[in-house]
Amino acid sequence: MTTSPNGTGNQDRPLLSLHAAVVLLAALVIGCVVGGLSHVGGVPTALAVLAGLGAAGAAVPVLHGLIR
Fold first, then answer.
1. Within a 10 A sphere around the Cβ of 60, how many other Cβ atoms?
2. What is the pLDDT of residues 8-38, one digit of tens each?
3. CA dihedral 36, 38, 42, 46 (to 10 degrees)
4. Among the residues of 3-44, which ranges form H helices?
């Protein structure tokens, strides 16, 4: 195990920062809402999934810039 100069090692570092977790969670919610509304609106399931993925992907950089 490697330790840092202060002797704490890597145990204190989280896998994701709070900022990254909030951005990804919000993008997931946005993608689910867009996909669900698309599906309810009569779009075939495969296209609704693609719409949700596209919305989630587009939301990540926007949310990253907004949430600071």
1. 17
2. 566 788 999 999 999 999 999 999 999 999 9
3. -80
4. 18-40
Region of 36 (left: φ > 0; alpha: ψ -120 to 50; beta: rest) is alpha
Q: How far is CA 52 from the centre of its chain?
A: 12
pLDDT at 12: 85
User: How much of the chain is helix, strand and coil, in % rounded to 5?
Assistant: 65, 0, 35
Residue 46 to residues 31, 43, 51, 53, 61: CA-CA distances in angstroms?
14, 8, 9, 11, 24
